[in-house]
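User: quick one - fold this with S-adenosylmethionine bound?
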Amino acid sequence: MAATGDAQPAKHQEVGHKSLLQSDALYQYILETSVYPREPESMKELREVTAKHPWNLMTTSADEGQFLNLLLKLINAKNTMEIGVYTGYSLLSTALALPEDGKILALDINRENYEIGLPIIEKAGVAHKIDFREGPALPLLDQMVDDVTFHGSFDFIFVDADKDNYLNYHKRLIDLVKIAGVAHKIDFREGPALPLLDQMVDDVTFHGSFDFIFVDADKDNYLNYHKRLIDLVKIGGVIGYDNTLWNGSLVAPPDAPLRKYVRYYRDFVLELNKALAADSRVEICQLPVGDGITLCRRIS
Ligand SMILES: C[S@@+](CC[C@H](N)C(=O)[O-])C[C@H]1O[C@@H](n2cnc3c(N)ncnc32)[C@H](O)[C@@H]1O
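Assistant: Sure. Structure tokens for the protein plus S-adenosylmethionine:
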């Protein structure tokens, strides 16, 4: 419904764009302020050509194209898939976002519509990134799911095709898209930390090699850790010590009823805080977040 209340379709509706925003005027504002002025020339040309096509309602809108383009750059996508191409607006926005050696596997049952946009995609110099396959997507996805070399191989998959198959697509795509997991970044070592730190301190290749070290272990050893970590953290790097406000017990009166473990570690935390405040090798900041965290930036 137009914000002005007149019965004429708003401009964006005429060219087949759609928005869930309540006010057409607001959507038009977004397009005219943030989207069209930054739209690459090739995407503008493809949008205008598509607007003349009888099925223009199917096209991806310019704001969504802008969003896809930014998202793909932010996640450094390289290998992508698109199901549902039509004349190629989202495909072009993807192709423009990918690096020179990026790849898009583009699937659609209709090549004729893709060929409307193809000359513009070629002129934009990004056609070499696209591997267009004509035909229904499901059988091809099934082939790929059967071939484990495709598992986890796609950084990004955009689905904009037959909605009645979305769940069928999802069942297959979940195997083909990369796992975002972080486990491969972790080198877990079981055992007390001090002996391992001592080995590292003895090996100069570890000196100044860590950007960030977080300590949240046995509080009675924090000062022992600090003596070693100061060599291992980079100059400019940060060590974070957790629990440096120790349940608020640091300022509790001597006869306060403290739990046994709180009382035991209290003096170690008091000693650490004093030592860090006096350590000229680090700049410090004690944050009253959680149970207190002290950040130490190594400066020498
Ligand atoms: C909404 S349009 C895609 C719009 C496109 N993303 C764009 O930027 O303009 C949907 C497309 O899905 C395609 N399609 C429909 N069923 C399909 C299927 N089973 N497999 C592959 N493509 C299909 C249609 O041919 C049509 O081009």
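One thing worth noting: The CA atoms of residues 68 and 94 lie 7 Å apart.
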